Amino acid sequence: MYRSYGFTFIEMLITIVVIGIALSALTSALSTSVVQGAAPIVEGKALYIAQAYVDEILPLKFDDQSPQQGGEVTLSASPCEISNESQARSQFDDVDDYHGVTDSPPVLLLPGFNFDQYSNYAVSVEVTCAGLELGLAANHLMKRITVTVTTPEYQDRVLSVYRGNF
After folding, report:
1. pLDDT at 146 (0 to 100)
2. Which residue from 71, 79, 121, 142 lies 20 to 30 Å from 32 (Cα-Cα)?
3. Which residues, 6 or more positions from 66, have their beta carbon under 8 angstroms from its beta carbon?
4. Residues in the chain with pLDDT < 70?
């Protein structure tokens, strides 16, 4: 009796089709992960920029009527007003001065921040009265500082913090 070893044409054809489908699925999965592989890096850079802006803004006075650091705190009864004094950035002395700031690429005055690698990002800052939204009796006691970073893919990442007048 004659024994034949090997594969038939049909077996080879089925094997090639199965391997082709498996490779197609594998390639599709890998290409998706490669495309999304940079997303955590972009998100990290956006957060770094937003945090750097917040770190620059928060140490400043609450508004023009607030005393310098270490002075006696007085709470005014006036309604909350946001007053950007339209001056040079190096002259900003209170939180309100940052309202309406837009930088593309990001620019910071604090030493140690180098934004050369962030030239494709844009930043905008908005300062609003927020006492009532936090349940305080007066709107002028709290401000919300919102830093919006636009990534190179034109997606906005928002970081908001509150600054109190007490």
Report:
1. 95
2. 121
3. 73, 94, 165
4. 1-2, 4, 33-37, 66-86, 110, 112-113, 166
User: 4-41 burial, b if ≥16 CB within 10 A, otherwise e?
Assistant: eeeeeeeeeeeeeeeeeeeeeeeeeeeeeeeeeeeeee
Taking the domains of the chain in order of start, what are their residue ranges? 39-164
Burial of 142 (0-12, 13-18, 19+ CB in 10 A): buried
Q: What percent of the chain has pLDDT over 70?
A: 80
Global pTM?
A: 0.70
**Cα R_g (the chain), whole angstroms:** 28
What is the DSSP secondary-structure string of 97-125?
Answer: GGTT-EESS----STT---GGGTT-EEEE
Token pair in block for residue 23: 């490779």
